[in-house]
Design goal:
Length: 132
């Protein structure tokens, strides 16, 4: 208790440093929460694209992907991997369709530093269309 009422000014420095540390922790936690929310949104969109592609039986879903980009405001890259194509972008009934989304985001650091982070999400499904 004596230290709180010390008149030498040491407490003022301790409080100023404590306030700076709390501010840094708050900035870092807000940035991390926004990255986690963005990753969850990408996973949801990957699931939606995979569901749409499996229902259509094709990976030609560019218009659907562009609609999702427009609605969400997130400019992600969409690619398909592990897919065996029948002809063109058609996928035969029972074959797997795997969607991979990537998005590059910069996390603001302390001061002017920026940390680039790549967020990835993947989803898959089985084609539901029989192509003759």
């Amino acid at each position: 208790m004596k230290k709180m009422f010390n008149r030498k000014g040491e407490t003022y420095v301790d409080v100023a440093v404590l306030i700076m540390i709390v501010a840094f922790v708050l900035i870092f936690s807000v940035n991390m929460i926004s990255v986690v929310v963005l990753a969850q949104n990408l996973k949801t969109m990957a699931d939606q694209i995979a569901d749409y592609a499996t229902a259509q039986g094709t990976t030609d879903v560019d218009s659907y992907v562009s609609d999702l980009k427009e609605k969400s405001g997130i400019d992600f890259d969409c690619s398909f991997s592990g897919t065996q194509y029948l002809s063109g972008q058609k996928v035969q009934l029972g074959d797997e369709i795997e969607v991979r989304l990537t998005h590059r985001v910069s996390i603001l650091g302390f001061g002017n530093s920026i940390f680039p982070v790549t967020i990835r999400a993947a989803s898959g499904g089985i084609s539901q269309v029989y192509w003759k």
